[in-house]
Amino acid sequence: MKHLLSAADLDRDAALLVLDTAERMDHALAGREVKKLPTLRGRTVVNLFFEDSTRTRTSFELAAKRLSADVVNFSAKGSSVSKGESLKDTALTLEAMGADAVVVRHSSSGAPHRLAGWVRGSVVNAGDGTHEHPTQALLDAFTMRRRLGRLDGLRVTVVGDVLHSRVARSNVLLLATLGAEVTLVAPPTLLPVGVEAWPAAVGYDLDAGLSKADVVMMLRVQRERMNAAFFPSAREYSRRYGLDGRRLSALPDHAIVMHPGPMNRRMEIAAEVADDPRRSTIVEQVTNGVSVRMAVLYLLLGGPDPREAR
Averaged over 104-121, what is the pLDDT? Predict the structure, then answer.
């Protein structure tokens, strides 16, 4: 595999290879005083972000640096892009710099796919419009497997603004590949056209399935992408689709709560739920993101399969 543009790029073996490699990366760094491996020394990774995302950009930067790669952070704000330079011109500039991998986030769905046709290096999709965010899905799967010991047969309920969520699409694709049973729960206005073709069940009543869920993943309500009234009010949304203490108590004892962040506290998730030390994996997801992105960069940039290493 040369690029990671979509969760659909990964078959079951490839996805498990990323998760297993992330586990090995995590163990390899655990015993080191200096959290660095020499694996990608001499390689250059460019973070090309056309949208603000401190969390994802920092995670990729830390992942590349822990593999000893050189990192260039390229922000569209204040750059030639803001003066009218096209994505292709930017790609040619990166090509001239000798970038081995480009991690790109863009507001337009499909931008990473276009970029992959213009550069010789590997392209990693760090979020494109409302389309996909494959490394978020991988770190979510990694977190589920670590907490619950398996992915096959897990019942995962994804709740909220599915329409605008690239995280939801990538998670549905990846979790279905890995054998989990996914149910999307949202108001009808926040479900995309064609959702019935996704490998997931669809429901409108959050309370109905909580007693059987192993994982509840809350999605951020993306008001910045909304140009119409998708629900009556924040209070009404929270009442019907927010995860509060009462709904938390309806979950099985082993069930976990996830959120890709950033959160709208008191709207889609109550503070007491987000901060629950036993149920919430939100902080773990951030930590695990570094290991998973290390694994992705390692595998894309020619690292040997660690399962074949002697």
Answer: 93
